[in-house]
Design goal:
The complex is a heterodimer of chains A (291) and B (496). Chain A has 291 residues and is α/β, with parallel strands linked by helices. In chain A, 45% of the residues lie in helices and 22% in strands. The chains are: A alpha/beta (291), B alpha+beta (496).
């Protein structure tokens, strides 16, 4: 029979091991996001979520918006970011570079009827409604705008769609530009600097709300997995579990969702843990891109 | 020279001289200040040129940094509008207002000042076209309808492969000119054929300028003028204003003061002039005492004025003189004993009358009377009694003759009466009346009741062309006959 003190020591050691990560992190942890829109807006839209996670886990957190997709990926790899809201293509690319990245959950949205929570969205190739272009094929020699080479809906999927249609964009368009954010693509289109561009359907819906029905969609993408929340590999399993649980526990009507919907126009519906193969279509799209 | 002119000149000349000296002194001060300002101008010019050099260096260094960056090259190759725009925006300074990137075809990739304006082709537009040829260019160019001072250069990959261009600009504006001039005390002006940029609006204060060398390339726009402006120093300006005011004052003084002085002096001296004029006329015999006094009446109406006191004194003096003259005149024409006119006076009257009758026509008569045996009376009663008889006869003659008749003592016991407008018959009648009156008269006092005596009278009427002497001779002859004919009678003079 083992002495009682030995079991107590083990118990204490377990408690210390569990609590240590929480105690050691005196500096706020970094929760980062890619700039899928105006950085100030992204900051405003995600701040309540980060505050909520900090409150629930008892761990101070600070929200950081990276300059681009690449920076987010690099910082997850070098450990200067602890948690991240990351686009699906960006996630796929990052997990190839950093296999130890820890998937926590996938962001969910309501369908347009708000009857079902979905984990997908779409990319669109669009032009202005009053333009002469009716199909993607008619865009030959024109000025085209992508979001970012690491953007799922703003580059990876549209590029995959074009290749499927037999279009090599680098030779097909007269000029190709990368605008950094989905919103920038919309604004450049409205400013007349682009003839067509690629954005997410959520960006299109917001633009329609803001500017009216000035847009013509030339092509819709297949469903794209929504963004993921991930943790860098150095984050302890306990804290990872705590954050995941906090995300999954968010009710559909939580103020965090209200803020996301109000600021970004996204019909936020919560978070869910998806199976490993969930992001494979994105991976395939990226593979296609890299050919 | 008249007194007024003398006084005026005496008063004005010293004033004008003093003020002229002040102006000369001011002029010397202005010259000194201008020399000092010229020395300062060189310093200001150097400061502005330094600012311009700093501006050009900043444009060039910005272009060099951005063009030489590997990140820029990557972004240009990737047509990363977002990166180029955001990054170049960080280089905005007061001397860098825009950075523009194009790809190797001259297609705009980003404008730092307009995030959503790109994709237009500037390959044919300077300075992009020149940079696409591999040139590093600086100078004034019009891009996007705006004149800017620009530095353009190619963006090279591996220092040799042209992948795009960069243009770093500062837009020309009044505000830029002001920044170039700020702190120097000078102004900056750049003028093109259709645009003018100036640090200062008040170009009217500019007193000089000097050219600025912007060291632009020959392909760029050549400004009509690029100058450093030197403004009128406030202190010198105040001195000049003062000088102008002094000169104006001198001119006004030279013109106005004499006029004012002349006006004042004339007003003050006018009474004296009138006094002098009156006295001159009086001394020249052109005015009488009375006329002179009348001319002094306005002066006398100004009591307290010295001229009035003089006029009053002169008036009193002339009046006294006039009375004295009247007295003398009266004395010279009056017989002291009888109070009648004397012989000299009646002779004058007689001549005047002959002149009058000769000019205007008419006639007059003359009576010459003599008291009979008067020598005997004098001898018997004494001269005082004789005088009394003469006085009594004179009274009788005056009393019994007409107002228009002139009675005079001719000499001794002879009396003469001039009867103006009287023909011979009237004169004879008067003569007889007088003869009877004297004959009937007695005299009073000591010899109360004694007869005065008798009169013998000669009468004549003036004959045209006759002289006074001839007339007197005729009447005297008639008197002589009356004496010869027994006295106490009237004899008519014979005609010539």
């Amino acid at each position: 029979m083992k002495p009682i003190w030995a079991s107590r020591v083990r118990l204490c050691a377990a408690v210390v091991m569990f609590a240590l990560p929480l105690i050691v992190h005196a500096e706020p942890l970094i929760f980062a996001s890619y700039p899928f829109g105006d950085p100030v807006r992204v900051q405003r839209g995600l701040a309540p979520l980060v505050e909520h996670l900090a409150d629930v886990t008892g761990t101070p957190m600070r929200l950081v918006i990276t300059r681009n997709y690449q920076e987010l990926s690099s910082r997850l790899a070098d450990g200067t970011v602890d948690f991240a809201w990351i686009g699906s293509a960006n996630y796929d690319r990052t997990r190839i570079q950093v296999p130890s990245i820890q998937y926590l959950a996938t962001y969910l949205e309501w369908n347009r009827e708000r009857t079902e929570r979905i984990s997908f969205y779409r990319a669109v190739i669009l032009t202005l409604a009053d333009s002469e272009f009716e199909t993607v094929e008619s865009l030959r020699g024109t000025r085209f705008g992508f979001t970012d080479p690491d953007s799922t809906a703003g580059y990876a999927y549209p590029r995959m769609m074009m290749m499927t249609a037999g279009i090599n964009y680098s030779q097909f368009f007269g000029s190709v530009f990368f605008l950094g954010t989905h919103e920038n693509v919309i604004r450049a289109l409205l400013a007349g600097s682009l003839d067509a561009g690629a954005v997410s359907d959520g960006t299109l819906f917001n633009a329609q709300s803001e500017h009216g029905d000035q847009f013509r969609v030339l092509m819709w993408s297949p469903p794209i997995p929504l963004d993921a929340v991930v943790a860098a590999d150095h984050v302890s399993p306990a804290l990872t579990a705590a954050v995941r649980n906090a995300l999954l526990a968010l009710p559909a009507d939580h103020p965090v969702h209200d803020t996301i919907e109000r600021v970004f126009g996204w019909p936020a519906a919560g978070f869910s843990v998806m199976p490993d193969e969930f992001y494979d279509p994105v991976f395939r799209a990226l593979e296609l891109r890299n050919r | 020279m008249r007194l007024t002119a003398r006084i005026t000149i005496t008063a004005v000349i010293p004033l004008v001289l003093i003020l002229t000296l002040v102006v000369v002194q001011l002029n010397r001060s202005i010259s000194y200040e201008r020399e000092a300002a010229a020395r300062e101008d060189q310093l200001k010019l150097a400061l502005v040129r330094n600012n311009v050099t700093t501006l050009l260096n900043q444009l060039q260094s910005t272009a060099a940094i951005l063009a030489g960056s590997a990140e820029t090259a990557r972004a240009v190759l990737a047509s990363d509008v977002n990166f180029l725009q955001q990054w170049s925006e960080l280089f905005h300074t007061p001397f860098v207002s825009r950075v523009l990137f194009t790809d190797s075809r001259g297609i705009v990739l980003a404008r730092s000042d307009d995030q959503f304006r790109f994709s237009d082709n500037l390959s044919r537009q300077e300075p992009v076209s020149l940079a696409l040829e591999g040139k590093q260019i600086r100078g004034f160019f019009v891009l996007d309808n705006t004149i800017s001072l620009s530095v353009a250069q190619p963006i090279l990959l591996y220092d040799e492969l042209l992948i795009g261009t960069i243009v770093v600009e500062v837009r020309l504006s009044d505000d830029l000119m002001y920044r170039l001039a700020r702190g120097t005390g000078a102004g900056v002006l750049i003028e093109f054929s259709d645009a003018l940029f100036s640090s200062h609006a008040e170009t009217n204060r500019v007193r000089g300028h000097s050219d600025i060398a912007f060291r632009y390339d020959p392909e760029s726009l050549i400004p009509l003028r690029a100058s450093v402006l030197f403004f009128e120093d406030e202190y010198v300006q105040r001195l000049r204003d003062l000088q102008f005011r002094f000169i104006s004052f001198i001119v006004l003084l030279a013109l106005g003061l004499p006029a004012v002085l002349v006006f004042i002096l004339r007003a003050y001296l006018r009474p004296y002039a009138r006094l002098i004029e009156g006295l001159v006329k009086l001394s020249g015999g052109r005015e009488t005492f009375a006329e002179v006094r009348a001319s002094f009446e306005p002066l006398l109406a100004q009591p307290g004025h010295q001229a009035a006191l003089i006029a009053d004194a002169v008036s009193r003096f002339t009046r006294s003189m006039e009375e004295s003259i009247d007295m003398l005149e009266k004395l010279s024409t009056t017989d002291q004993l009888t109070g009648l006119r004397n012989r000299r006076s009646i002779e004058t009257t007689l001549r005047d009358e002959i002149d009058r009758v000769t000019r205007y026509g008419g006639t007059f008569s003359l009576l010459l009377a003599d008291i009979d045996n008067f020598k005997l009376v004098n001898d018997a009663l004494g001269h005082p009694e004789g005088d009394r008889i003469l006085q009594t006869v004179a009274d009788i003659m005056t009393t019994n003759s007409r107002a228009t008749d002139v009675v005079a003592r001719w000499g001794g016991e002879e009396f003469i009466i001039h009867c103006s407008g009287t023909i011979l018959e009237g004169a004879v009648e008067l003569s007889d009346k007088l003869r009877r009156a004297v004959g009937d008269a007695t005299y009073s006092d000591q010899w109360r009741g004694a007869p005065v005596g008798t009169l013998s009278i000669g009468v004549a009427e003036y004959e045209p062309g006759e002289t006074a002497e001839a007339l007197l001779s005729r009447v005297d002859t008639a008197l002589y006959r009356a004496k010869q004919s027994g006295r106490d009678r009237v004899e008519i003079a014979r005609s010539n």
